[in-house]
Write a structure and sequence with these properties.
Strand content: 15-25%
Radius of gyration: 31 Å
Number of helices: 7
Strand order of the largest sheet: 1-2-3-7-6-5-4
Helix content: 25-40%
Shape: globular
Distance between the termini: 105 Å
Largest sheet: 7 strands, antiparallel
Structural class: alpha+beta
Number of strands: 7
Number of domains: 2
């Protein structure tokens, strides 16, 4: 008999002598199956908890950020009304060399309480009362902002104001202070004015929705100074930006008062605490200093 035949015979004899314990194999398989099912259930439960947490965060951000400008996409009817999302820089073409790592927030010298007091002071000449105020200070990445409900006795109206920085020579600053296509935005009136100090002011009287699906009006003023300070204010003829019944025929602040609000020196300390915006590629990047 050859070596190969001897080896084959030895292997067959060894295999015949091996008897598997069927019960032990079955028990081990069942235990492993239970472990896999437990892991799967834990993963599903963990995913559900994570999804719920993300939903709650998104919901809170939408409800608080609705007036402070912290959330989501803007309605095409008044897209330029929204405060700057990331530090108010407004740069759309990428940061030029040397700007990487620059601070995107202020020192916090002007906090939320001061912002609320400043808005109340700026509105004090109209004889109305400001309630339900919410604010963030200059140490926030989105810039400083404040909102509240203003009541001059003719119906409650939501008011929201934000402060940030933008490249004054960039395309974003130009877009913010330019009247859009009336046939698309559906506004009643829009005017741009060049102020004596070189600042550019937009006053826009439109609606919360361009298609006017509801009667909620949204009037805005946007100021961009030569130093790149950006002040934006929006007001509605309802106590909330969306989802509230109209409380008056028009928002409380007319064009003159909107202009006075955004140009008020009360905002200078907060604006001066915000870092300059990154210059846009191709822009002049002009201006720095006080507004």
């Amino acid at each position: 008999m050859s070596f190969e035949d001897d080896l084959g015979t030895a292997l067959r004899q060894a295999g015949a002598g091996f008897t598997a314990d069927g019960h032990a194999l079955a028990d081990a398989g069942e235990a492993r199956g239970r472990r896999l099912v437990a892991r799967r259930r834990a993963a599903v439960a963990g995913g559900a908890v994570l999804a719920l947490a993300l939903t709650l965060i998104a919901t809170a951000g939408a409800s608080v950020g609705g007036l402070l400008g912290g959330g989501g996409g803007a309605d095409p009817g008044h897209a330029v009304a929204r405060p700057m999302p990331e530090g108010g820089s407004g740069g759309s073409g990428g940061a030029p060399d040397g700007w990487a790592g620059k601070p995107r927030t202020g020192s916090g010298a002007v906090g939320a309480e001061r912002m609320m007091a400043d808005l109340e002071e700026a509105l004090s000449g109209g004889g109305g009362a400001l309630t339900a105020t919410v604010a963030r200070g200059t140490d926030s990445e989105g810039g400083a902002a404040v909102s509240g409900v203003y009541d001059d006795g003719k119906g409650k109206a939501a008011v929201a104001l934000s402060l940030s920085r933008v490249d004054p020579g960039g395309s974003h600053a130009d877009q913010l202070t330019r009247c859009g296509d009336r046939s698309i935005q559906g506004y009643d009136d829009c005017r741009t004015e060049r102020l004596p100090d070189g600042s550019k002011l937009l006053v826009h009287k439109g609606y919360e929705y361009a298609d006017r699906r509801v009667d909620t009006k949204c009037w805005r003023a946007v100021l961009v100074t030569p130093a790149g300070f950006l002040v934006e204010v929006s007001e509605w003829n309802a106590p909330a930006q969306k989802g509230a019944a109209v409380s008056r025929p028009a928002p409380p602040l007319d064009s003159a008062r909107l202009k006075a609000l955004v140009t008020s020196p009360v905002w200078h300390p907060a604006l001066n605490d915000l870092p300059a915006a990154e210059p846009e590629r191709g822009g002049t990047g002009a201006g720095s200093g006080t507004g």
